[in-house]
Automatic annotation (TrEMBL):
Molecular function terms, GO-annotated: protein C-terminal leucine carboxyl O-methyltransferase activity
Pfam families assigned: LCM
Task of the protein: Methylates the carboxyl group of the C-terminal leucine residue of protein phosphatase 2A catalytic subunits to form alpha-leucine ester residues.
EC number assigned by the record: 2.1.1.233
Gene Ontology biological-process annotations: methylation
Name by which UniProt lists this protein: Leucine carboxyl methyltransferase 1
Record's catalysed reaction(s): [phosphatase 2A protein]-C-terminal L-leucine + S-adenosyl-L-methionine = [phosphatase 2A protein]-C-terminal L-leucine methyl ester + S-adenosyl-L-homocysteine
Length: 356
């Protein structure tokens, strides 16, 4: 398959994220910015939900909540190509592994509270999946996205008896923020906040319910990449300035300069999408330097192809291979090599992350 015809995760699946995972990340309306651009970025969330649905219906992932957040007409959901489904699966498995370890009671003890902040959360179902676990950890979970996206999620959960068992009686705090407390004591705060405005304020109350005295994990799955590089840097700084024990996980594309990377950028441009951080953090080492420069003492990174090889067990690889089969092995390696998971942390509360 020639480079010009190789599919890529962004052009064919939007920013397929999972429940995580999974790529989204959006920013809200902003004075002086074309509303059309924000609408295009916002629309990637629908692509992401459909990609996750494809992976779930084919057996790659388990997610009993994804159907509630997929907007579609009559007929079946579009089935993604095997190479895309594997990308969705691997990216989700990587973030699940990092987040599960962060929440592990073996690491932090049964009583220590945790906090997760998901930037550009959109229709992501990770919060629901964590809250519905047997004997789940007690956490404060924040999602930040467009006000319209947050409102839509509020309406979906409020109208669903199934979802209401996990997040009962969500309460709107104001026009753009709502909160729900699970039966086990965890909380979800959903904030309709423009990340660009967040980076410009010193007012911590803009994120109601935010705790600065517990170990916290900041998650960006193809979110900060849509901001100008300086804006993305300021968003991270907003949290590093306030939370001493802070970790971060970033999932973004890399390597825009080789033939596949140039095609990837061209495909994005054709959809009206530009990722400024891709222009600056071009290689894996750039993502490492980015996190070190942001104040994280410990930094790691792995491309998605390496994650597939090293983090997925042989038995699980066999199971996934048997779902559809994948003839384009070299194309998979090329595709997955252009996406990276980078993570870092400062302070305490991150246990075995040190060993990876």
């Amino acid at each position: 398959m020639s480079a010009a015809s190789i599919p890529n995760l962004l052009s064919l699946r939007g920013n397929s994220r999972g429940g995580r995972g999974r790529g989204r990340g959006r920013v809200g309306q902003h004075p002086g910015r074309p509303s059309g651009h924000d609408a295009v970025i916002q629309g990637t969330d629908d692509d992401a939900a459909l990609s996750r649905l494809s992976a779930v219906e084919l057996g790659y992932l388990e997610d009993p909540f994804v159907h509630s957040f997929v907007r579609r007409g009559s007929g079946t959901a579009p089935r993604r190509l095997p190479i895309i489904n594997r990308g969705t699966y691997t990216r989700t498995a990587a973030l699940d592994r990092l987040i599960d370890l962060f929440l592990s009671k073996d690491e932090v003890g049964p009583s220590q509270e945790r906090q997760i902040i998901s930037l550009g959360a959109g229709t992501d179902t990770r919060c629901l999946r964590i809250f519905s676990q047997e004997n789940p950890p007690i956490i404060t979970y924040h999602e930040v996205d467009f006000p319209a996206i947050c409102k839509q999620k509020f309406n979906t959960i409020s109208a669903s008896p199934k979802l209401g068992q996990i997040l009962p009686k969500p309460v709107e705090q104001n026009g753009s923020t709502w909160c729900s407390q699970s039966p086990t004591g965890s909380q979800l705060w959903c904030h309709g906040v423009d990340l660009r405005e967040l980076a410009q304020t010193e007012d911590t109350s803009i994120l109601k319910g935010l705790k600065t005295d517990v170990p916290t994990l900041l998650v960006s799955e193809c979110c900060l990449c849509y901001l100008q590089t300086s804006e993305a840097r300021d968003v991270i700084k907003w949290f590093t300035d306030r939370i001493p024990d802070l970790g971060i996980v970033i999932y973004e594309p890399i390597k825009p300069d080789d033939p596949f990377g140039r095609m990837m950028v061209s495909n994005l441009s054709a959809r009206g999408i530009r990722m400024p951080t891709l222009e600056e953090y071009r290689e894996p080492r750039d993502q490492e330097n980015r996190l070190r420069g942001a104040g994280f003492d410990h930094v790691r990174q792995m491309a998605v192809d390496e994650i597939w090889e090293k983090w997925i067990s042989e038995s699980e690889k066999e199971r996934v291979d048997n779902l559809e089969g994948l003839d384009e092995v070299e194309e998979w390696k090329l595709l997955a090599g252009h996406y990276i998971v980078a993570w870092g942390w400062k302070g305490s509360g991150f246990g075995s992350w040190l060993q990876w």
